[in-house]
Amino acid sequence: xxxxxINKSLVRLSFTDFEKWITKKFxxxxxxxxxxxxxxxxxxxxxxxxx
Amino acid sequence: xxxxxxxFMPGGVNADCLRELAEVKNIFIADKTQGFASVxxxxxxxxxxEDIEEDLSVYVPQGVSDYENTTDDANISTLQxxxxxxxNRPVPSIQAYISGNFCDYSELLGTLDGGxxxxxxxxxxxxxxxxxxxxxxVKGMKxxxxxxxxxxLKGDIQxxxxxxxNFTNYNEFVNGILMKPVWSPTDTLLEMVPVGYSMFxxxxxxxxDVVVQINERCGAFVESLAVADFEVVDSNNLxxxxxxxxxDDGAGVYTLTLEKDTVxxxxxxxDYMTIRVKALSTLIVDYLSNRVKVIA
Lengths: 51, 296
Description:
The complex is a heterodimer. By secondary structure, chain A is mainly α.
């Protein structure tokens, strides 16, 4: 596969929705890395927040 | 009261200036809403720069290799074998032959299709002919412009790229202004025009993706474009129409994912997006392609 670039406007999606989209489109790409590249923040799981 | 029978005397002459109106060297095509607030602004290359390379509201071809003034002669009628009268003021028109190349002319054929624009005329003595409004603004003369090809010519090949310019307002020539900037118009302004790319579809839209080939105009393939270099300029009123992703497959081939809606979805049958390459560095458009309509 050639060089992939993702539109930064997809940061409007929650990480969960983004992950669904990118896994379907580009299965070999790391969803977390790409989400951060477009300016997204991945929320920590609730149990970690409670600590 | 408006007295139509007034016969005013012309006022004054500059006896130190004996200079005919020079021939046309180039035409600067502007959006019909484009203009400059004043003569001083119109004489500033910085004002032109912003319109050419940021707003994309002025287009500068490489020049005019030849042209014909196709303005009709005024109608002269004779009143029952007595005196003659003039019955009209024909609006000027020009058939211009643009200097350039096949690929740039293809872009003109695809865009100059009888729409209304404003036209500044650069003359061979380095002046720019425009029109001045009653508020002191400076604009190009309003015109309907159509590019029409006759295919390959036999002889006179410098006339290969014809553009028909039919001005629409005689009074804009009556209120004409001839400006002589300190800079050379075509030489200065041509450098500001974005580099033109040619884009065409190689694989139609399927499952959200369209594959395109992108080259320099009549030149080599273009490498290293990314998603930020593409723009959706039009669609059938789709919500959130974007180029979601781009895969650079190398050798100028790009797979573009075109999707709509807040949660990305592929276009439905009958939907369309019109896209182009518009590669920017800050506000300046460095590279610009033709528009391509992608129909689902």
